[in-house]
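Protein 1 of 2
SEQ + STRUCT:
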Amino acid sequence: MSDQALARRNVMVLTAAQALGAAAPPIIISLGGIVGQMLTPDPTLVTLPVSLFNLGLAAGTIPAAIAMRYYGRRTGYLFGATIGLISGLIATFGIVSQSFLIFCLGTFVAGFYGSYVQSYRFAAADAATGEFKAKAISYVMIGGLAAAVIGPQLVIWTRDAFITAPFAGSFLSQAALAALAIPVLMMLKVPRERKPSKTDVREGRPLSEIIKSPRFILAVAAGMVSYALMSFVMTASPIAMVGCGFTVGEAAMGIQWHVLAMFGPSFFTGSLIARFGKETVTAVGLLLIAASSAVALAGLELGNFWSSLVLLGIGWNLSFIGATALVTECHTPEERGRVQGANDFLIFGTVAVASFSSGTLLSASGWEAINWMVFPIVTAIIIPLMIQARNKKKARQAIA
């Protein structure tokens, strides 16, 4: 099988795995605070399960990268899905036994599974070449579109499965999704997968050298800003909506449209990158994130909140996939495991901080202050992106 045919086959496998694995975060995010209210009398701790999920996601990126480097992506992903299965069972037991501590442990461990799921986008690009590399990343993200439907629907179907333990069925279904991902991931065929020798481990540049590269710094910064701003504003939006007098249902509807907007553009994001370039698409995505804040600042009507969330989702899709494609330019095949692990650790570490701080900042400074913060941060990344795009264009013209 040619590399390109193998890449296309793996994209289908990883898209299916993404649909199953990425359904866990909507379950945790939508129910973590509600279950927290059930299990702890301390109102300051009710969102801790969701924040711990994000912390587990950040903490798991480096161990996941090491596991996949030594044992290969396929074995690593199977191990990750097993972790996902266990995490769902732990969270379910926490609800049934009415233990807030055990439930929090379950959501924290689920974050480790998420660190494997997040790297599916890199695995899709491993065997791809040329323009299909960016498209492969984009296509796998389409699985998130299915996950955006699967997760909330499972919450609805299974939340009352156990009469004496509300929502335990939802987290049991999270475990079931991870179990279903195992046979799917067994179909993954990674080119030349083998355990590296000590010589292999030393191949390539040291990570300390790679992370000093201006190209790597810009790619990671773009990913950090796109994901952290999206998480920061998304976390605060439902609280702000309810504070403005809208119902919880209207807030939930806004988040659902936001999640669909996050993954819907994946059908064409790869083609846009192939046509206009990684830097340009990433910059446009960041501009849309800024536009979402402008819409939010324009008024406090329901339409403002919903439109802002949709723009935020589309902007995240373009900027995050573009930033991911930029990272693939920063390493050789021998270096990719540690580079991709470092990239995700920095991104999701920033997201964890944003998750912990969003509610506090909203309470202290207000909804408008959160949105005003977006503009200078976006500007600081767009300018170097455009400079890098211009330099690439000049280099191509010089070669021609």
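Protein 2 of 2
SEQ + STRUCT:
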Amino acid sequence: MSAAKKSKGKAQQTKLFVLDTNVLMHDPTSLFRFEEHDIYLPMMTLEELDNNKKGMSEVARNARQASRFLDELVTVSHETAIEDGIPLATRNEHAATGHLFLQTQAINTELPLRLPVGKSDNQILGVVMYLQQVFPKREVILVSKDINMRIKARALGFAAEDYFNDKVLEDTDLLYTGMLELPADFWDKHGKGMESWQESGRAFYRVNGPLCNAMLVNQFVYQEGGEKPFYAIVKQQTAKQAVLEVLKDFSHHKNNVWGITARNREQNFALNLLMNPDIDFITLLGQAGTGKTLLTLAASLAQTLEHKIFSEIIMTRVTVPVGEDIGFLPGTEEEKMAPWMGALEDNLDVLNQNDQEAGEWGRAATRDLIRSRIKVKSLNFMRGRTFINKFLIIDEAQNLTPKQMKTLITRAGPGTKVVCLGNIAQIDTPYLTEGSSGLTYVVDRFKGWGHSGHITLQRGERSRLADYAAEVL
């Protein structure tokens, strides 16, 4: 490899990243995410890409896309010898200015501790060792999503890192909650020149002050204490001014939604979002038992059957089992999805029990009517569809990658509302973390948009047993 011919100054400044296969299979665009640094692909990485290209899974699709990117780079830069490095700037989407090096010769390095040579991971480690010997003054770093691979590399004295570029946030504690508590002196500092008015039965306040800069459109602001707590949503925001709209009180029985009332502050905020026709996209985060699915179903039934805003409810979720997979399931798409939709059935039972006056026959008729308006769909058949005037509920959304999330949300046609539910502490998909989940991604990207809203539900309302278990186990 004649990369050694490159100027020593540049070599010392830029790093050489050796990519493990799982990085490319996780994010094919990772080739263009290393800015001015160079990338080295061992032959074993290309072999493993080839072995994983078959099938319809997300991993197989990514392996094929990575191969297409590599083919494009090699084809476009036919004038450059591969040994000298292929300039990544030919595809200038992500401003990558480094070079791509492919292994063009056999590398025979004896790994310490006599690691088995046949194993692909060890062959990649052998390449890292060789590159360190060839470029003693250059920083050579192995990038892998495999924790054990990184442990092995560090045990052998090599630099190893996780692939962080897909992370939306380094720390999920910084994730937008959708709420802002107003300080005790808020009205003293922001009340000067305040305007207030009534419109469509709602009270509005226009406030001026330093805190307005920290607010986002459709963020909830609240102030507890006093005779009556103050709950409002930010409708407009500039650097020094904000318009606050006082919320509807869904904790009062007269404002119940399909028999459901809000049991705490966050549930009240969630129902204000779910029942607002101007909001097209909603994300609800929260641990088990906070009422995400129940509130969403109650709002969807009220708007579909009572107010006739939507024609039907579509519910989908990622089919990732908690334990061992039970194999193929018989029946139609709806019947195959039934075992995954236990949460839907449980919540429909709760919503059905609210109508005490209807009697057994009335409740059975209502249940049949509700089931006829709720469609359960598999994620696998979503591509290419367009939903018009539908209420789309994506359950367990924390298991979706950002790419899958984009595929789903872009299905929304005119008059469709999309609601994503999930708990980022319960991710079951391999290689997805709290920081790189599609749910974290959309919460961060959609905040402040005038037609989207987010709330993180805090308090469990399932039972005292469930609350205690969530706290101590």
